[in-house]
Design goal:
With about 260 residues, the protein is of the alpha/beta class. It contains seven helices and eleven strands. Helix 7 links the parallel strand 9 and strand 10.
């Protein structure tokens, strides 16, 4: 089942995302959460920090697993995803270092990839956060990725490089790493609950393919989420604009408008 919540703007939607995450942590202090980088959850992470400072939500026993990392990115690299998570969230709440997990982007042998898979599957993700690319990629699982894929090395699509250059590298595509290491689709689908958020016009086509009746295909990896039994999709009004509600299977998708 996919439950969709549409808010007037990103700010309101991000607070709702925060509420979902902190409720899980409060109900299960040893929760296992898969985190996502990129611009989508920046406001959500700021809201989590505010909640921590105000309500003292305890993250000390929470385990985290991140979706992906640029190949060969070091922990302190300012363009690396570990650095991003520390700056945006991890260093501002009481997570323990031993509970923070990232794919090893330096040692990328088959055994190292399998080790991250084993850690994820053994921990049992209670929640996985996801953004979505304009080409439908989730994590760095670009079009063509199989549903049974596990942690793997990825050649980034041109559209992904363009988007990351615009968001994080001042528009300079030459600075964007061309390879990354990513959880596979099967890792993501193993989560008990998935929270996907999307804002703005650039996400409209991918969201349309996810929510409307249509093919589940590796050509648009986000459509694999139709096979999961507990997905929450949080959108702003603009991201929802292309949706034809007459082309939604009400047995699969539930729409909740919050404006």
């Amino acid at each position: 089942m996919i439950k969709v919540y549409i808010y007037k703007n990103k700010k309101e939607a991000s607070i709702f995302c925060k509420d979902i995450i902190t409720t899980i942590v409060n109900n299960n202090p040893s929760a296992v959460i898969g985190f996502a980088t990129g611009s989508t959850f920046v406001d959500t992470y700021a809201s989590i920090i505010n909640d921590f400072n105000k309500n003292k939500t305890d993250w000390s026993n929470v385990k985290t697993f991140n979706l992906d990392e640029y190949l060969n990115a070091k922990k302190d690299s300012p363009f690396g995803y570990r650095y991003f998570m520390d700056e945006q969230l991890f260093s501002h709440i009481n997570l323990q270092e031993k509970n923070i997990h990232f794919p090893n982007s330096i040692n990328t042998s088959s055994d190292d990839l399998k080790k991250y898979d084993a850690q994820i599957f053994d921990a049992h993700l209670n929640l996985q956060l996801l953004g979505v690319g304009r080409n439908g990629h989730i994590a760095f699982n670009e079009p063509g990725t199989r549903i049974d894929s596990t942690t793997h090395i990825v050649d980034l699509a041109k559209s992904t490089i363009e988007d990351n250059a615009r968001l994080f590298f001042n528009g300079d595509e030459d600075l964007v790493p061309k390879k990354a290491i990513s959880m596979g689709i099967s890792n993501i689908m193993s989560a008990q609950k998935i929270l996907l958020a999307a804002w703005g016009e650039s996400k409209q086509e991918a969201i349309k393919k996810l929510l409307e009746v249509g093919e589940i295909t590796s050509n648009c990896p986000v459509t694999f989420l139709k096979k999961h039994n507990d997905v929450v999709v949080v959108l702003d009004e603009i991201a929802f604009e292309l949706i034809n509600e007459n082309n939604i299977d009400n047995k699969l998708v539930e729409i909740n408008k919050k404006f």
